[in-house]
Each structure stands twice: as structure tokens, then as C-alpha cells.
Amino acid sequence: MKNNIFISKRQNATQSSLTLDSRVIATGFTNDGQDVPLEGHVGSLTSTNNFINFCLTSLDVPITNGVQISTGSCNPAPIGALPSVDKMPSIKFISPRNGDTVSAGQSFTMSLAVQKLSQGVFTSFNKNFLSAPQQLDSQGLVQGYYAVVIDQLFDSHQISPTDPQNDNVYWRPILQKVVNGIVTVDITKGLPPGSYRVTSTAYAMNHQPVFAPVEQHGFFGDVVYVSLSFHSSNFALISGLLYSSMLLLVLLLPVL
């Protein structure tokens, strides 16, 4: 018991120390990757101290400091723990499906099949934005959450890039626990008629996109393109009302 207390105190001391421990220095960071130059490759920035003072090279911008700064910032938090390749997250939309038409102006539910994320772990995005490294749970899964984003398009055939600042009409984290491999999110206010791109991806608990252990891997998220319009039943109702009104007008014309 005493040994455990000693180890715990020693670990706490290393995490509060302002001195870089030599045991965590990444010696590979001193290599710019150009020992054997390859076409299209550029030399990497190098460091002998794990880039601990990197943000001193960007004194014209503030430290991120856990806050979302729209004008830009420099974040000193390290990337953190990376999962093994067999524990990378994945997402697939169940509903809506690609090409679906959804009723405009009405609430609807999105369902996603998900796997291999310690889901529903979410820190304050006002105080803890990118303020801590990516962390794994006891099973080796990234601790974090899924989020859905809806961007409005000009039309369903749009090929020009969207504007991340202005085209986003909906963003929401999914904080509920996974039930039978599925999570859902309710779009309660509905959206106006139009064409939309709906995406979902996995985030670590401090709101950074999940970092992978290897460069080449499948996409962690999913995307579907949907249209919102008046539902066919609503259209039929409106058409019926218009027809009835026109018929009534025709019948009343002789009287008028």
C-alpha cells in the first residue's frame, strides 16, 4: 500500500513538473525525414525537446488555453495516446440514407451504427477546447463522442467546395450511450427545403478529431446527401385542398 502511494505521488509530480523528463523525449523528432529525399516530400520541422516551446514561434497569436478563438491561436497540448489499429472508431448512417428525401420543417431522427469508441465522454467546449491530450480507456478505446454536422448546398449537384464558416446549419454532439451498436440524434426544429450534406465523425473528449496510430486507414466518419421537401402526404393534402377550393369557386361562379 505504501509503495502504491509513493508511485502515485511520483506520477503526480511528473505531471506537474515544468521540466521535460528525459524518458519521454522523442529522439526521432530530430530527423527531418530527408536522409533519402523522395519526390514530393519536404523536410519536417525538428526538435530536441518535443517542441515544448513551439508556441514561442507564434507570438503573434494567443495560446489556445482551452478556449475557441475564431481568429486563430497556438495550442501547446500534445497529441496524446493513440489506439491500436484494431481499435480505431467507425461510423455508418442507418437513417437517413444517401439520396433520401426528408420532410422539410419537421423534426426527424438520425440513426448511426457505431463501433470502437468509448462514447459519451465530453468536456466543456468553453473551457477545455483542445486543452488535454487524446486519452484511451481501460479497453484501449479513444474516449470521446460522435457529432453530426449538416451543411446546406446550392443544389444536389453542387461540385464547388462548401464554406465551413457559413454553410453549416446544424452541429450537435451525440452524448448518449451506445445501445446495441446504435446511437440516435433528434433534429427537433427541422430544416427548410433544400439540399444538404450530412456528416458524422468521431472526436476525442477534448474536441479534437480522433488521431490514428497509422497514416493509411479508412475514414472514421460517414456522409450522406439528402433533400428536404414537403412530404408526399403533405403535398397530397395541399393538392387536395387546392383542388377543393378551385371546385368550390367553379360552382359559385354562376351565382356570383
How would you describe this structure to a colleague?
Keywords: Membrane, Transmembrane, Transmembrane helix. The chain crosses the membrane at residues 235-255. By secondary structure, the chain is an alpha+beta fold. It folds into two domains: 2-52, no CATH class; 85-234, Immunoglobulin-like (Sandwich). The chain has helices spanning 2-16, 232-252; strands at residues 90-95, 101-103, 108-115, 144-153, 168-174, 182-187, 194-204, 222-229. It has a five-stranded mixed sheet with strand order 2-8-7-4-5, with no helix packed on it. The protein is globular.
Characteristic terms for this protein:
256 residues, alpha+beta, Immunoglobulin-like, 5-stranded mixed beta sheet, 14% helix, disordered N terminus
Strand content: 15-25%
Proportion in helices? 10-25%
Given as residue ranges, the uncertain stretches (5+ residues, pLDDT < 50) are 3-7, 232-240
CATH class of the largest domain: Mainly Beta
Task: Kindly report the CATH topology of the largest domain.
Answer: Immunoglobulin-like
Keywords: Membrane, Transmembrane, Transmembrane helix
InterPro entries: Appressorial_penetr-assoc (IPR053216)
